[in-house]
Amino acid sequence: MMMSITTVPRHLSSSSFLFPFPSSSLNFSNSISKGRDCNFRKNMSSSSHPIQASSTSSSSLPLPQDRIVVGVGGTVVDYLATVDAFPNPDDKIRSTSLKVQGGGNAGNALTCAARLGLNSRLISKLANDAQGRGILEELEADGVDTSRLVVSKDGNSPFTYIIVDNKTKTRTCIHTPGYPPMVPDDMTRSSLMSALDGARIVYSDVRLHETALVVAQEASRRNIPILVDAEKKRDGLDELLNFADYVVCTAKFPQAWTEAPSIPSALVSMLMRLPNLKFVIVTLGDDGCVMLERSPDGSLQPEEVDVDSSLQLLKQRVDGSSTIPTCISSKSVVRLSAKGIGAVNGRLLVGTAEKIPPSELIDTTGAGDAFIGATLYAICAGMPPEKMLPFASQVAGASCRALGARTGLPWRTDPCITPHLL
Question: Which of 232, 367, 349, 216 is nearest to 280 (CA)?
Fold first, then answer.
């Protein structure tokens, strides 16, 4: 039997994440810790969110007409400790700062999308513990609809320890999954139907792959596009990719999945293996990103070019002196071929990352999730790839200027991104 959470009091702030270690006995705030269980958000209206209202009502920026995004995946508590340098084995060191806030791929991406103006609906599972209540509180404060989240009476909510190295600006994650894990039977048919009602796009981080597959099957039946976050090979990823219209992945994934000799040839292989795929984006950190977009017109017989050579030519056109994200694309549809693999009709695009001054670069945790959240917005807004890639890179860059995955996520009125929304 599913126990669904309805809403959490909107007046509670994310400052409730003040506990140093996971413990179900620790309270987030008096207003949610005394005499309340998994039904504590009942009868709260999702339209009462003051932060989102004040952020968007003062803006004349147009919102996408169809802006409901449904996300399936992980939402956790992140314990972020910064250190001067990553410890050696058996070292004893001190942290230079500590921050506790919400995290998880899906939770981060939908928070980003909500701040940008989308109506974000999250499908996930937590336990009825202090961490779970804090996770819900923070999501709701950012305008994420959590009414389809499942809450188990017992068990533990997921959490992640993150060590941020101030010297190398890298982070190391130690994740503890939630228990009991989410299974499709946790979600009622009516909850699934209401989650997808009016949705423009569905997103999965493949963390809850069995549930995500059920959602993807229904979304496909309704012709709702699906974006899959292929961070790395996970259980159930292959099945979900068969439903994907869009894929965003890290640099290591395409070659690992296709066994192709290079990233460009791997992208060609992915589009050949996945006929429903409209585009695939590979994020490359401070080297930007590469995108392969399939041509919707299969009757074209364009010039055939080598995909690896095409990528090198595009990189040569990048202005190395520019500090803001830019996009370089092939001028027209070509037939991109990969030796020993095949060819597809489409366009190859190179997106650059923002050049962040060292003094402003704080933490890259969640930068990929920010990129995906912005990509979800761009799809809903109908942005062309030439506009989408710089926008997503700008949002990801903003997230790197603060500790944690969510602190630096911009609102749609932030001056750093408003030019992209005009």
Answer: 349
Question: Chunked in runs of 10, what are the mean pLDDT values of the chain (422 residues)?
Answer: 35 38 36 30 33 42 93 95 93 93 96 97 96 94 96 94 91 93 95 97 96 98 97 92 97 93 96 96 95 86 92 94 93 91 96 95 94 98 96 97 95 92 86
Residue 157 · residue 100 · CB < 8 Å: no
Tell me the C-alpha distance between 398 and 150, whole Å.
31
Q: What is the model's pLDDT at position 400?
A: 96
Distance separating alpha carbons of residues 124 and 236, to the nearest angstrom: 16
Q: DSSP character for 182?
A: P
Residues 6+ positions from 38 with CB-CB distance below 8 Å? 3, 5, 128, 151, 153
Among candidates 146, 76, 148, which has minimal Cα distance to 105? 76
Please tell me what DSSP assigns to residue 181: P
| Phi, psi dihedrals of residue 263, rounded to the nearest 5° | -60, -50
105 burial (CB, 10 Å; 0-12 / 13-18 / 19+) is buried
Residue 274 structure tokens: 């996945």
Please identify which residue in the block is written with the tokens 């981060």. Answer: 108
Task: Find the DSSP H helices in 181-281.
Answer: 189-196, 209-221, 237-241, 252-258, 263-273
| pTM recorded for the entire structure | 0.85
Pure H helices in 126-182: 130-141
Q: What is the pLDDT of residues 145-160, one digit of tens each?
A: 999 999 999 999 999 9
Per residue in 343-382, is it b (16+ CB within 10 Å) or e — as a string? bbbbbbbbbbbbebeeeeebbbbbbbbbbbbbbbbbbbbe
CA distance 223 to 420: 28
Widest distance between CA atoms in the chain: 69
C-alpha–C-alpha distance, residues 203 and 243, integer Å: 11
Q: Are 270 and 277 in contact (CB under 8 A)?
A: yes
Task: Tell me the C-alpha distance between 189 and 243, whole Å.
Answer: 20
Give buried/exposed letters for 107-123 (b at 16+ CB in 10 A, else e): bbbbbbbbbbbbbbbbb
Residue whose token pair is 């400052």: 15
Q: How far apart are CA 128 and CA 371, in angstroms?
A: 31
Q: What pLDDT is recorded for position 257?
A: 95
